[in-house]
Amino acid sequence: MSTLHPNIATLRSIYEDLRRIERHADEDMVLHTAQRQAGDPGRIYGKAAVVEKMQALLRESGRTLTMRVDSIVANDYFGAVLGSIRARRGGSEIGMPFCGLWRFRDGCILEHWENSYDIAELDAFMRGDAPEESTWVRG
User: Fold this and answer.
1) H-type helices in the chain, by residue range?
2) pTM (whole model) above 0.85
3) Neighbours of 62 (CB within 10 A)
4) Please, which residues have CB within 8 angstroms of residue 31's CB and are 6 or more apart in sequence?
């Protein structure tokens, strides 16, 4: 019988409730947001700022944001999570694939790279600028 790597359990816990990132983040954690652009690398530095970013994401979605995990791979150093993100806002709903990449040291999260398949559409949705029906929403 094999046991799951502890970093898999950490990632599973975080994706079940984004607020749990605070339990596992290094004080100097770096978040590379999905909104990376020319001239704006989209980095957030420090545990407190990362926690605030996660809380803001939940608030912006009216606490409807969920992340369904399809697969997790992790070892002592890195983790990768594939899944789909969903949120509702008013009468609209969005859902699309994501890939989260993580770097660990001694069980603590040092870095996280957010990646959603269509960040422009997701950002527009979160601002309330998206059409009522997203082309990404699936059953």
Assistant:
1) 6-16, 21-24, 47-60, 119-127
2) yes
3) 11
4) 43, 44, 49, 50, 53, 111, 112, 114
